[in-house]
Amino acid sequence: MTGSSLKYLIKEGFRNTWTNRMMSVASICVLMSCLVLIGSASMVFLNIDALITSIEDENVIMVFASDNINDEQLNQMSTSIKNTANIKSVEFVPKETAWQEQLDTMGKAEAEFFKERSQDIPLPDAFKVTVDNLDYFDKTVKELNTIDNIDTIRENRDLAKKLVTIRQGISVIAIVIVAVLFVISLFIISNTIRLTVYSRRLEISIMKSVGATNSFVQLPFVVEGMILGIVSGAVGLGLVWGLYELAITQFSDLFKSLKLSPLAFVDYALVMLGIFIAIGIISGVGGSLITMRKYLNKEGSEISAV
Q1: Partner residues linked to 87 by β-bridges
Q2: First-to-last CA distance in the chain?
Q3: What pTM, to 2 d.p., does this model score?
Q4: CA distance linking residue 198 with residue 18, whole number of Å
Q5: Is the pLDDT score of 284 beyond 60?
Q6: Torsion angle, CA of 190/32/223/306, rounded to 10 degrees?
Q7: Which member of 6, 183, 253, 294 has the lowest number of beta carbons within 10 Å of its beta carbon?
Q8: How far is it, in rounded angstroms, from Cα 174 to Cα 37?
């Protein structure tokens, strides 16, 4: 295929899009609706994932040191904990600080009573440990238990398991929704191209009669599908952005009452635009190729008879 032929076929793709603009607009609207649903669901899942992550960061493991441990042993404990696999962060909590925090939660008279009765601080030094991946929570706790000079370890294993289950469930739901909407988009584009092919069956028959190859006939429709996909992706992103900002504005009081900070859409805009355009192009090009290949292979005899 020469450069001039390729240029001509690309122009034909743009011309077909404009000539069949009613069908093109219908295809863009439906595909754009699918992308808006995908984008909206994605932002909801991303915010839920961010919320789960913040809860995970609060689900710390408290490692309490043995009584009468010296500074050198504490440093060795700190190093051993930091060198343990799957550890995200380690914060040393001196017993003096922990005791003062306990007193601050009491009433004034109660705090004075405990200060007078407690000659020594009744709390051990501790390390506040945050794990990196909750999937390996149990394994991490077992490894921490092997470190010397540890008195006790306080952890919430049930919460960790529930968070892992919730995260996995959200991931599965997100994948299923995106897959279903992608198939719907592919189906819609295929039907749109099928109608376009049917309306131009005489033209296709003439092209085949003069020796045009299947790829020569298919390319304008592929370009048309690509245009529909790109336009749908760009417009869909704008709609998702607008709907997301509107939702944040409408539920701002609820977010404040729950002390939640919704994610900034601008941080995901470019990535989502790329994904939307990719989905649009794959749907458009895939739908065009599937429809044209089926039409040319199975209905070629009917075309030649027209």
Answers
A1: 131
A2: 27
A3: 0.65
A4: 17
A5: yes
A6: 30
A7: 253
A8: 11
